[in-house]
Every structure is written in structure tokens, then in C-alpha cells.
Amino acid sequence: MSLRVIASEADLAEGAAHLASVCPVWARVLPQLGPLPLRRRADGFGALMSAIVSQQISTAAAASISARLAAAGLDRPQTIMAADDAALRACGLSGQKVRYLRALAGAGIDFDALRLMPDEEVSATLTALPGIGRWTAEMYLIFALGRADTFAPDDLALQEAARLMYGLAERPKGRALAELARPWAPWRAVAARGLWAYYHAAKGREGVT
């Protein structure tokens, strides 16, 4: 399995050229979208902590909680494990998210090793933790590790964008979208960026934060 990563605009351009070469719909749509965004984020504990904090709340609320945690010094595994529940909840975390963050902090994940693992091994490592599902693992692979061929077929915005782009009668659900995306390999993460961009253009709002 290739561990090709998307590290630059040149990588995105190479991936976009591939999509256009294998699919006439992409060939038509990509020029309308313009350059796709790189959207890389730092990997490591902070990326997963942010994902947990952000679950089921607004972007603004998540940013506020994250700022309070950082101000209290509760943004590292050691300090989270040492803090009591009251201190963490005072920053705005629910009891459930306190448990999730403690599990993440105590897991001892080797984030350097994750960079060298195949996608499925990364996903298995992360989804073994409470509070981290497959979608969160896929977002980590796409944006934090920059994996070029990771896709998220259960993402609703990707499903809706594919429905609109391809003129489908209904959203292609998980397995159907994964099958539609098969020819886009080995650049399915570029296709995901393109679909999110298409969703934003069609709906006037971001499909992913």
C-alpha cells in the first residue's frame, strides 16, 4: 500500500489531473472550482483532542472550549491525566468528553509510528479509543497525515456533493459512494477536497471544518 501524502499544491494539481483523466465529470467540474485547498493540519495529540472537543457542537463553541483548556494548561496528555474532572468540566467539557479525553491521554499513542502505518492500521489504532469513530480517523488521515488516497464515503457532504455533481436521484450512501470513488484512486483524498469545494459552492456553506 502506498503511503503517498499530499504535501503541496503540486500534489493537489497532480491528483486533479488524474481525476480529470479518468472521469469526464471531474474534467468538467474541476476548472470551475479553481485550485483546491491544501488544508493540512499538524498531526499528533492536539489534532485528536480538537476532534473530540468539536463533536456535536458549533465551531465557535469548540474554539471557546479549546481556548479555555489551553489557558488552563489542560491541553497535554500529562496535565489532562493529572487534572480532576471538575477542572476539565469547568472548561466546558461534558462528562462524556472528559472520559474520551482521558482515554486518549492515557492511550500512549505513538504518533510518529502512525505516520508510517497503512491507512487501515491507523484507523484501527484510533477507532479502538472511545469517542473516535471511523469518520474522525478518516479526517485525521486526510488532513493531519495528508494521505493521498483516503476517502470518507459516509460523510454526508461528500454524498450530497456526489449526488449533485453526477445528477443522481439520491445520495450515494457509504458503499455506493465508495464504489463510485474507486476509479479516483490513488488520489481519492484530492477527490474529497474537490467534492467539499463543490458542496461549498452549491450550498454556500462548508462541508467540513
UniProtKB/TrEMBL annotation:
Coiled coil: none
CDD domains reported for this sequence: ENDO3c
UniProt keyword annotations, A-Z: DNA damage, DNA repair
HhH-GPD domain: residues covered: 53-203
Enzyme class: hydrolase
UniProt family annotation: Belongs to the alkylbase DNA glycosidase AlkA family.
Protein's recorded name: DNA-3-methyladenine glycosylase II
